[in-house]
Specification:
By secondary structure, the chain is of the alpha+beta class. It has 15 helices and 20 strands. The protein has four domains: 134 residues, Resolvase, N-terminal catalytic domain (Rossmann fold, 3-Layer(aba) Sandwich); 143 residues, Hect, E3 ligase catalytic domain fold (Alpha-Beta Complex); 178 residues, no CATH class; 70 residues. A hairpin with a 2-residue loop joins strand 6 and strand 7. Helix 4 packs antiparallel against helix 5.
C-alpha cells in the first residue's frame, strides 16, 4: 500500500484496548501505558495530524468514522490490541483498511502498511488467536472446577443478592423475592406469562432492570413497569428459586462465539440446598407441569378452569375447551382434540365445564372429609392403593438393578482379560473384535436398563414421602365450598374423561381424577360419575 497523502480534514485514530487477560500482565498492556506509547508515536508522525484515543466500546464508532471517510490512519500499540481473532484482524488489515485507503500502524510489531506488506504479520495474528484460545481453555477449566465444586458461576438472579460477608453466598432479597413468589402464585392460579405480566404492569411493579436501577440510585429506564413474557418465563423455569445451584446450563461451541446453547438436564450439575429457597419445590414442580400443559384463552376471552388438565381416556389426547361469546358460560364444554365432527379417529367425550366443576368439587370435598374423619384410615387407603402392588414390583426392580450392576462390573473385567489375550496372541484379533462387540452391546443394554429402572425406584421412593405434601394441601383448603383455579391446580394433576354410556336410558360418564402427589384415590362412596337423565326430543319420521 502506498503512503497516504496528507489530508488535513482527516484524523488519525489511536486505538487502545484492555482485555480481561491483560489484568495478569501488569502495567505493560494497561490503557495508560498504551495511551502514552500511542501519543508519543503520533507526535513524531510527519502528517502532523492530532490523534484521538478510543476505548473498546468505541470500536464501532471508529469503524463508522472510517466508513464515512474521516480517518486516514489507525495506530495501535501492537497487533493484539486490534483483536485476537486472526480472521477478523486479517479482514480489517488486509481488506477493510486497504479498500478505504487507511494507513495501519502497529508500533511494537513494526507494522506500517505505508511501508509495504509485512510477511510475518499474518503469523502474529495467528499467534494472538492461539493465545486467546489457550486463555479461553484455562478460564473454562477454572470455571469447570468451580462449577463442579458447587460454586455459583453466575450473578444471583432476581430475588437474591450477594452476601457482603461471603461473596460466594446468595441471600434472599426480600423485596424482589416477594415479587418472585407472587409470579409463581399467579401461575398456580391459572395465569400464563402474558397475563402475569399484565397484572404486574397494572400494579406498577418495577421490572428487573428498573428495580436494580432504583437500588443503585440511577435513573429508571423507559417503561419501568413493562414486564415481558420472556422475563416471566425465565423466572418460572429457574430451579435456583428452590434453593438449588444449577451449573452448566449452557455452553458455547467456540471462544469466538457469543451465542450460548442450552444444555440437557444430564449435562447440568445440580447441587441441592445451597441457599435459602424462595419457592417450595412442590410449587415449582407443579408450575413446570402447568407450563408443560399451557393454557390459552379462547376467542371469547374465557379460559377453562380445567384447561390443560383434561385428557381423553381412549386416545390420550387433551380435551379442548370450547366456549362462545353469545353464551353466559353455561354452554362451556370440553371435547377430545381428535374429534372433528365425526371425521376424526375418536369420539367427542363431551362434558360441560359446570358438570366437571361439580364432580371435581365433590371429589375434593369427599377426600378432605375422609382425611379429617380418620387420618389413619386415609393413610392406610393410600398405602394400599398405591404401594402394595408397587412395592412388590420395586423389590423385583431393585434386585434386577443390583444384578445388572454386578454383570456390568464383570464385563469390565472380561474386557480387560480378552484385551490382554489379544495382545499376547492367545486369541486372534478377529475373535477379540467379535467378543468385544458382543460384550459392549450387552453392557450398553444393561447400563440403559439400570438407568431406567433406577429412575423408577427413585420416583417410587419420592412418592412414598409425598403424602405429607398432600396432607399440607388438604389442611390449607379444608371445608371448601367452591373451586378456584388455584385450588384446582393445587389438588389436581390430571382429569381423565371416559366416553359416555347409556344404561337403562340414562347417561353415565366416568371421570377419573388424578391428585397431585398421591395419584387416584378410590373412596367407598365415589361421586365421580356424571349421570344425566336422557333428553326427550321429538323427532320427525319420514312417512
Amino acid at each position: 500500500m502506498t503512503a497516504n497523502t496528507y489530508k488535513p480534514e482527516h484524523i488519525t485514530a489511536l486505538y487502545a484496548r484492555l482485555s480481561q487477560e491483560d489484568a495478569l500482565d501488569g502495567d505493560s498492556n494497561s490503557i495508560v501505558n498504551q495511551k502514552a506509547v500511542l501519543s508519543k508515536y503520533a507526535s513524531d508522525i510527519d502528517d502532523g495530524v492530532s490523534g484521538v484515543t478510543f476505548d473498546r466500546p468505541n470500536f464501532n464508532r471508529m469503524i463508522a468514522e472510517i466508513e464515512a471517510g474521516n480517518v486516514a490512519t489507525v495506530i495501535v500499540k501492537d497487533m493484539s490490541r486490534l483483536g485476537r481473532d486472526y480472521l477478523k484482524v486479517g479482514y480489517y488489515t488486509e481488506i477493510f483498511f486497504v479498500e478505504r485507503d487507511v494507513r495501519y500502524i502497529a508500533i511494537n510489531d513494526g507494522v506500517d502498511s505505508a511501508k509495504g506488506d509485512n510477511d510475518f504479520t499474518p503469523f502474529r495474528n495467528l499467534f494472538n488467536d492461539f493465545y486467546a484460545k489457550d486463555t479461553s481453555k484455562k478460564v473454562r477449566a477454572i470455571k469447570r472446577a468451580q462449577g463442579m465444586a458447587g460454586e455459583h458461576l453466575t450473578k444471583p438472579p432476581y430475588g437474591y443478592k450477594v452476601d457482603l460477608n461471603d461473596r460466594k453466598k446468595w441471600i434472599v432479597d426480600e423485596e424482589a423475592a416477594a415479587v418472585v413468589k407472587r409470579i409463581f402464585d399467579l401461575c398456580v392460579a391459572g395465569k400464563g406469562p402474558s397475563q402475569i405480566a399484565k397484572v404486574l404492569k397494572a400494579d406498577k411493579v418495577l421490572i428487573v432492570k428498573a428495580y436494580y436501577a432504583k437500588k443503585k440510585g440511577k435513573a429508571l429506564p423507559d417503561n419501568p413497569y413493562n414486564w415481558k413474557d420472556s422475563t416471566i418465563v425465565g423466572i418460572l423455569e429457574r430451579m435456583d428459586y428452590c434453593g438449588h445451584t444449577v451449573n452448566f446450563k449452557s455452553y458455547s461451541k467456540s471462544h469466538k462465539l457469543k451465542k450460548r446453547i442450552p444444555t440437557t438436564k444430564e449435562q447440568q450439575a445440580i447441587f441441592h440446598n445451597t441457599h435459602e429457597a424462595i419457592v417450595e419445590e412442590a410449587v415449582f414442580e407443579r408450575v413446570q407441569e402447568l407450563r408443560a400443559n399451557k393454557r390459552r384463552p379462547t376467542k371469547a376471552e374465557r379460559q377453562g378452569m380445567f384447561s390443560g388438565l383434561v385428557f381423553c381416556a381412549d386416545c390420550g389426547s387433551k380435551l379442548h375447551f370450547a366456549t362462545c361469546k353469545s353464551f353466559d358460560g353455561s354452554q362451556d364444554n370440553y371435547r377430545c382434540a381428535r374429534y372433528k365432527s365425526n371425521t376424526g379417529d375418536c369420539t367427542a367425550h363431551f362434558i360441560r365445564e359446570e358438570v366437571l366443576r361439580k364432580i371435581v368439587l365433590n371429589r375434593i370435598f369427599a377426600v378432605t372429609a375422609m382425611f379429617y374423619e380418620d387420618i389413619t384410615a386415609f393413610m392406610e387407603l393410600i398405602q394400599k392403593q398405591r404401594f402394595d402392588e408397587a412395592e412388590k414390583d420395586m423389590k423385583r426392580k431393585r434386585r434386577e438393578v443390583g444384578q445388572a450392576r454386578k454383570r456390568i462390573a464383570e464385563l469390565d473385567r472380561i474386557f480387560k482379560r480378552i484385551y490382554e489375550d489379544d495382545i499376547n496372541g492367545t486369541i486372534s484379533h478377529e475373535r477379540f473384535l467379535k467378543l468385544s462387540a458382543e460384550y459392549e452391546a450387552e453392557q450398553k443394554e444393561l447400563t440403559e436398563k439400570v438407568k431406567a429402572e433406577q429412575q423408577e425406584v427413585d420416583t417410587y421412593e419420592q412418592n412414598k414421602s409425598d403424602f405429607d405434601s398432600f396432607a399440607t394441601i388438604i389442611r390449607e383448603y379444608v371445608g371448601i365450598t367452591e373451586l378456584t383455579p388455584t385450588i384446582v391446580n393445587e389438588f389436581v394433576k390430571k382429569i381423565i374423561v371416559h366416553a359416555p354410556e347409556k344404561i337403562d336410558g340414562k347417561r353415565f360418564q366416568k371421570v377419573d381424577i388424578v391428585f397431585n402427589f398421591v395419584g387416584e384415590i378410590h373412596l367407598p362412596t365415589d361421586p365421580q360419575t356424571n349421570r344425566k337423565k336422557p333428553i326427550n326430543r321429538k323427532r320427525r319420521h319420514n312417512p
